[in-house]
Amino acid sequence: MMNNMKLNTNMENLRDIYKEIAEKTDIDTAHKIYCAFAGVQVCFPKKFYTLEYVKSQIRIQYAAGTSIKELTRRYNYSERWIRKILSEGRLEDAK
């Protein structure tokens, strides 16, 4: 790939996806992504953090006084799912 070639910094010359990445980050980052993933179809998960991390944070923040309603907004999960996670945490603590 173009690793040794001097990088043209005019973003108008980039394909749309690389242009969008460069606009959101910078052209060097877009080029690194190109070098690492060119030709590969990449799907990004809708959620940024692992499920284990989110569950632990929900339990910690709820114990610290954060409301379920606020947790649903913060993590973009349903109230029902948040309550289920909190319930599972109580069951694990009881063991």
TrEMBL record:
SUPFAM superfamilies in UniProt: Homeodomain-like
Mor transcription activator domain mapped to chain residues: 7-90
Domain of life: Bacteria
A Pfam family per the record: Mor
Name of the protein in its database record: Mor transcription activator family protein
Source species of the chain: Emergencia timonensis
